[in-house]
Amino acid sequence: MKENIFDILKNLNFTEYEAKAYLTLLEEAPLTGYAVAKNSGVPRSKIYEVLDSLAMRGDILVSPGNTPQYTPVPAKELIKNRRIKAEKNFELAEKSLAEFESSANDRENIWNIMGRNEILDKVKACISKATKRILLEVWKEEFEELESELRQAAKRGVNVTVIAYGEIVSDFANVYLHYMGDEITEEYGGRWIVISGDDSEVVAGIVSLGEDSRAAWTMHVGLVMPITEVMIHDLYLMEIMEKHRELLEESFGKNLVHLRRKFSIYPDFKKHYVK
Questions:
Q1: pLDDT in tens, 6-22
Q2: Which residue numbers delimit the Transcription regulator TrmB N-terminal domain (predicted)?
């Protein structure tokens, strides 16, 4: 009979020594650690380690004193506690695995978002999920609509850094005013938005076409990594321009126009992405 119970307790994650100690206490309690060792066959060198493990798990109770005494949690209560814990673990596993599966699928997909409001809603969702850093490239018009969510993120301890096209002022974000904001607005004939949340997801697209605005959202590392790095290199360049503008413009023209001409396929710099 006892051997069968040992096997059952082992299935409940009891070690052999824990099972022997618990059954001994069920037969007679309270007992000192010495008495549990003597009656159960658990080596005296191991008994207090075993009893501490059972107590920490809530399977036995300890009466403190100069000579602590031990008593078992009743068998029905022990089984009830184990069942509750198992059900919680199953629920947690089910939820976590579903979230992981969904996240894993999302990491392989690129989703198209249509409409300016829908794009900004997705950007807000990205902001709300961030826990470490937000990189945001944005015009003043869209920044004003995102300001509340960005402020809340900063209050959570998220580092918010903004590459701004137009006069954006903020008391919670690191704002870098792009040195060519006006020229870029004219050349592209429209406004875009790019956000990288925790270097793990990106929303990027045109937001100045109303319902015809288009953006992509993805967690695909093949896009998230290079887009995030491009934003970081924009920040590098703005820091360098802030400190060494005169020297750089002496070599490359005002606002680095010679470099822009060198790498542009449009003689007038006017892009044709926006129709």
A1: 888 988 889 999 999 99
A2: 9-75
What residues in the chain have per-residue pLDDT under 70? 1-2, 101-106, 179-189, 267-275
Helix 44-57 to helix 33-40 angle (10° resolution) is: 110
Backbone φ and ψ of 101, nearest 5°: -60, -45
Amino acid at residue number 104 = A
pTM of the model: 0.60
Is the Cβ–Cβ distance between 76 and 83 less than 8 Å?
no
| 3-state secondary structure (DSSP) of residue 180 | coil
Residue in the structure block whose two tokens are 């939820």:
95
Sheet of strand 69-72: strand arrangement: 31-32, 69-72, 60-63
Identify the three-state secondary structure at position 163: strand
Q: Round to whole Å and give the CA distance between 255 and 269.
A: 13
Q: Strand, helix or coil at 162?
A: strand
Token pair for residue 111?
A: 């989703």
Residues 110, 205: contact at Cβ < 8 Å? no
- Picking from 138, 128, 210, the residue whose alpha carbon sits closest to that of residue 177 is 138
DSSP for 35-82 reads: HHHHHH---HHHHHHHHHHHHHHTSEEEE-SSS-EEEEPPHHHHHHHH
Give per-residue pLDDT as tens, 21-41: 999 999 999 999 999 999 999
Whole-number Å distance between alpha carbons of 219 and 197: 10
